[in-house]
Design brief:
The structure holds 2 protein chains of 2 kinds. By secondary structure, chain A is an alpha/beta fold. Chain A folds into 3 domains: 1-82 and 162-168 and 189-242, Rossmann fold (3-Layer(aba) Sandwich); 256-335 and 422-510, P-loop containing nucleotide triphosphate hydrolases (Rossmann fold); 347-421, no CATH class. Chain B has one domain. Chain B has 13 helices and 2 strands. The chains are: A alpha/beta, B mainly alpha.
């Protein structure tokens, strides 16, 4: 057997805060293969990536490159060893051209100045060699995410990478772009590059990888040729239990229309239109899913509906009462609640206790407070109830929110928003970055609210989630609702066409 | 180790580190650095000596008195800074609030007669109101015009000091005095001295009460919850429906109430008449105190005491060695530097007990 390109031999990583992120991890990467590393959030995938790219150093075991123990102390060392990382969040300069981004940091010089024509020629040659067509003179700001990712890949190749690490590369791509990426990955491998792809989407593992290594709780639970495993087997290795079938849609009759959005429009501070004449309605006991590539107005829509931003035109009504443009408190009083898309950004106070986070939206109501004074006893009791009902893994309600895992944090955020039994819930990316078990629990809670007669607007970048939960689906493209479907009448592929603007049809206004 | 224990340890480390670096600087400028530092560190202590008649006598009580007097002022000013800081409002307007608070207290004391139990609460209330109202201004400017509170509070300090001087020169000047000052405050309005030969009054007891009240406000009221939530994550506070404008305005104005108390203390306990050339700058000492206390109201009195102790020690150092009092300004700057370096000192999480559950790393 040939010497593997990379070997992890019993590698452990203990973070100073006591987290054992990798616990005796061993696996090999063979030259020229596509190797998928899968696992739930928190399983230690990213740590493997960081160790390999020199961002972290192992606290035990060793990493061998070409059979020789390697000391990767800095990304510099990794790059010198021919390892390139394409991170989840791309790091390109938007105002630079594709070629300028590719050669960034290693620019060909001519009399001390960047040699633009050579930069373009070299980028183009590299792109041709691997069959990844680009326009080297296009500005990155004008390019799609899929194209930007391609440029990021070329950037690492330009620095001499022979091992390419792709961290959740499909997270922000449309189905069509994912096909393009997979085609590109195969061309890279044909060109002699080894590819490691980190993902938690099992269908992608099957579609692209030659071999798969599964991590759970910092340990390798299996490594095998992909063709020998089916999705269920991989899933079981990931979560340690078999997956239950996905939740079903409601079959019962829907209630009457509860929420109406009427030609909502929003122009941001820079004068660009984020939302244009968006109209829709949601009945009691119905989930309306918003499909769309991120950045097509979802954020503006969620902010307007939750009362944090005022629409430039139009309004939304609940029970016939307008609730937009009147502040958060007003909307909440009318029964509107919102789970925002980024937990730590604007949905939680990391340094506050669990209990304090849970009362953040209704601290001024009894029994949490009386006559302006908080009642710690009542607050703690309430928090303890939530912790138990949502089976949050925390020692007590006094634990800092920031110390919790993403899944537990998201459970608490949803619990807080559900506490007032909202008539209308805006759920933005409700399961993003949480593990499978927590995601299933959270989806179950959304469905339970719907079955109790709540109206839900579900905004998610995860098309599978949209398809699994929604009773109706609307597609948002460049701030406009370009299509609306009854559940079951459109599949991922068709939605993808509308999401990328290749097709559109006027919204069905009831 | 408890959180409080860790914070106390950290504060002491910060002070020790600042003093250590300060000693190096002192050694560079002084021929007698040891003597100077001894004066700095022990100069504020009273001295117990056997008198000629064989009994014990306490000497240098005034120094200890000066420490307590200054600590009271700094407690109030530290609270005045800590409250807006907790809301992440970097108000540095305590100076102006103190000046107008003192002015209001003196004006009321001079204007209304009556027994102490009428005039003292009235003067105190006037000072708190003045501080509150002056604190409303930057809050409203920020809420209405999005004016940066650092700039407005700094500028309003100058305005307040000039108003103070104008009022004392033109309206409250005592022509009989040999310098520009208000008349002496009438006796019923002056606080009773508790320790002979000092100006330590009942304010010594009221300062910790004020700290406790501030703690109660921040930790046990809905308004305090709003202030802390806004300081911790303003975007989340807005999403949760916290009235952002009201909270912004009130956080600075409530700080002003405590600054007003400092003004009352200066006017009716320490000086008993207000000279036109009262020195600004107490607000900045208040910022240092709030920083050492990490904006925790209960820690403010201790930080204030430590800081006042060093300031009086510095005066002794200036008198008894060749080191100038400016050395203390350097120490003050060093303390700010060390406190501001959040990660200074032993890694705090090393003290933390292992959590009962795993923190997700990926």
């Amino acid at each position: 057997m040939t010497v593997p390109l990379v070997e992890f031999r019993d590698v452990s990583k203990l973070y100073p805060n006591g987290t054992l992120a990798n616990d005796g991890v061993s696996f090999t990467l063979q030259a020229g293969e596509i190797h998928a590393i899968v696992g739930e959030n928190g399983a230690g995938k990213s740590t493997v990536m960081k160790l390999l790219y020199g961002l972290e150093r192992p606290s035990g075991g060793m990493v061998l490159l070409d059979g020789v123990p390697a000391e990767l102390r800095h990304p510099r060392d990794a790059i010198a060893a021919g390892i390139g990382l394409v991170a989840q969040h791309l790091s390109l300069v938007p105002s630079f051209t594709a070629a300028e981004n590719i050669v960034l940091g290693h620019e060909p010089l001519h009399r001390g100045l960047v040699d633009q024509s050579r930069a373009i020629a070299e980028s183009l040659a590299l792109a041709r060699r691997f069959g990844l067509e680009i326009d080297p003179q296009a500005h990155v700001a004008d390019l799609s995410l899929g194209m930007r990712q391609r440029i990021e890949i070329l950037k690492t190749l330009y620095r001499g990478a022979r091992l390419l690490l792709l961290d959740e590369p499909t997270a922000v791509l449309t189905p069509q772009e994912i096909d393009g990426l997979f085609l590109a990955i195969r061309r890279l491998v044909a060109g002699g590059i080894t590819v490691v792809i980190i993902t938690h989407k099992l269908s992608e593992v099957k579609a692209i990888s030659d071999r798969v290594t599964v991590l759970r709780a910092g340990r390798v639970t299996g490594t095998a040729p992909t063709r020998e495993l089916d999705e269920a087997a991989i899933a079981e290795m990931m979560v340690g239990r078999s997956l239950m079938p996905p939740p079903n849609r409601s079959t019962g009759p829907r209630g009457r229309t509860l929420v109406e959005a009427d030609r909502l429009s929003f122009v941001n501070g820079q004068g660009s239109v984020r939302l244009r004449d968006a109209s829709f309605h949601i009945a009691a006991g119905e989930i309306l899913g918003i499909a769309g590539v991120e950045g097509n107005g979802q954020n503006s829509l969620a902010r307007i509906l939750s009362g944090i931003a005022d629409p430039c035109a139009g309004e939304a009504r609940i029970h016939g009462h307008a609730f937009t443009g009147r502040g958060v408190r007003h909307a909440r009083r009318l029964g509107v609640a919102a789970v925002s898309e980024d937990r730590l950004h604007d949905a939680a106070a990391a340094a506050f206790s669990i209990a304090d986070n849970l009362i953040a939206t209704d601290y001024f109501k009894p029994p949490q407070s009386r006559l302006g004074f908080l009642r710690p006893g009542a607050i703690a009791t309430k928090a303890q109830e939530v912790i138990q009902r949502f089976s949050v893994r925390a020692a007590s309600s006094a634990v800092r929110m920031g110390a919790l895992s993403g899944g537990n944090m998201q459970k608490l955020i949803l619990a807080r928003e559900l506490a007032g039994e909202p008539a209308f819930l805006i759920a933005s990316q409700p399961t993003r970055g949480v593990d499978i078990g927590a995601a299933r629990f959270l989806r179950g809670e959304l469905l339970a609210l719907r079955d109790r007669g709540g109206a839900i607007l579900l905004i998610s970048a995860d098309l599978e989630e949209i398809l699994a939960l929604s009773d109706r689906i609307a597609v948002l493209f460049k701030g406009e609702i370009t299509a609306e479907f009854e559940a079951g009448t459109a599949d991922e592929r068709e939605l993808g066409l509308y999401m990328t603007g290749l097709q559109r049809r006027p919204a069905v206004v009831a | 180790m408890t959180v409080l224990g860790r914070e106390i340890l950290r504060a002491m480390l910060v002070l020790a580190a600042a003093l250590a670096v300060g000693f190096i600087v002192t050694a560079l400028v002084s021929h007698e650095p040891l003597k100077a530092y001894r004066a700095l560190l022990t100069g504020a202590l009273p001295e117990f000596a056997r008198g000629a008649d064989g009994g014990w006598a306490v000497r240098r009580v005034t120094r200890m008195g000066a420490v307590l007097e200054e600590a009271i002022t700094l407690t109030f000013v530290g609270l005045a800074v800590a409250i807006p800081f907790q809301a992440r409002q970097f108000s540095i307007g305590a100076d102006g609030q103190v000046f107008l608070g003192a002015l209001a207290a003196a004006a009321v004391s001079l204007a209304i007669g009556g027994p102490p139990f009428v005039v003292i609460p009235a003067a105190c209330l006037a000072a708190m109101t003045a501080g509150f109202l002056w604190g409303l201004v930057p809050g409203l400017l920020k809420a209405r015009f999005d004016a940066n509170e650092i700039v407005t509070t700094l500028m309003l300090n100058i305005v307040a000091v000039q108003i103070y001087r104008l009022v004392i020169m033109d309206l409250m000047n005592d022509p009989a005095a040999g310098f520009l000052t208000t008349p002496a405050l009438p006796l019923p309005s002056v606080l009773q001295v508790m320790i002979a030969r000092t100006n330590v009054t009942a304010m010594l007891l009221w300062a910790p009460v004020a700290a406790f009240a501030a703690w109660l406000l921040m930790r046990r009221t809905t308004l305090g919850f709003e202030i802390r939530l806004m300081g911790e994550n303003p975007l989340f506070a807005a999403r949760a429906g916290v009235p952002i404008i009201r909270t912004t305005v009130l956080s600075i104005a409530l700080g002003g109430v405590f600054a007003g108390l400092a003004g009352f203390h200066i006017s009716n306990a320490l000086l008993k008449r207000l000279p036109v050339d009262l020195n600004p700058g107490i607000g900045f000492s208040g910022i240092v105190v709030a920083l050492i206390a990490r904006n925790n109201p209960l820690a403010v009195p201790f930080a204030a005491l430590a800081y006042a102790y060093l300031q009086v020690g510095a005066q002794v150092m200036e008198r008894t060695s060749d080191v100038s009092r400016e050395m203390v300004l350097i120490l003050q700057a060093l303390i700010v530097l060390f406190v501001a370096s959040d990660r200074f000192g032993p890694r705090l999480h090393a003290f933390r007990r292992t959590r009962p559950f795993r923190r997700r790393a990926a």
